[in-house]
From TrEMBL:
PANTHER family documented for this protein: PROTEIN YJDN, PROTEIN YJDN-RELATED
CDD domains the record matches: PhnB_like (cd06588)
UniProt cross-references to Gene3D superfamilies, sorted A to Z: 2,3-Dihydroxybiphenyl 1,2-Dioxygenase, domain 1 (3.10.180.10)
All residue ranges annotated as the Glyoxalase/fosfomycin resistance/dioxygenase domain in the record: 5-130
Coiled-coil segments on the chain, per record: none
Pfam family name, one: Glyoxalase
Taxonomic lineage of the native organism: Bacteria, Bacillati, Actinomycetota, Actinomycetes, Geodermatophilales
InterPro entries hit by this protein: Glyas_Bleomycin-R_OHBP_Dase (IPR029068), Glyas_Fos-R_dOase_dom (IPR004360), PhnB-like (IPR028973)
Protein name per the record: VOC family protein
Organism: Blastococcus jejuensis
Amino acid sequence: MTVRLNPYLSFGGNAREAMAFYQSVFGGELTSSTYAEGGMSDDPAQGDKIMHAMLDAGPGVVLMGSDSPPGMPFDDGTRISVSLSGDDESTLRGYWDGLVQGGEVTMPLERAPWGDSFGMCTDKFGIGWMVNITGVPAAAQ
């Protein structure tokens, strides 16, 4: 079982360009999906925006990013979040439970359209966190 902690960058519409730039700097494999591919947008203007991109540039270098989701404001002050991901459900749920204490849940930790469990919160110190548990359906919560 694994758990990974890495930065997650938010962009105001230029995530594709930014992630390609980071790939040119760090190398590695870049994967991405759009809001249309994820079934997350009915707006054609938003459909080709990046819902999730991940640059895996080798041991210890993982960078994730996306364009701000439709309906969520883009704020320069919250452009970087911390992402926790992996398949160790009990460890990741324990981290989630600790992070939300005294903080605010932005998106409940529940089944996402891509099949994992996903949630977002801001801890009591104002730091944004995302937790993604690989392949764990909502029924297991």
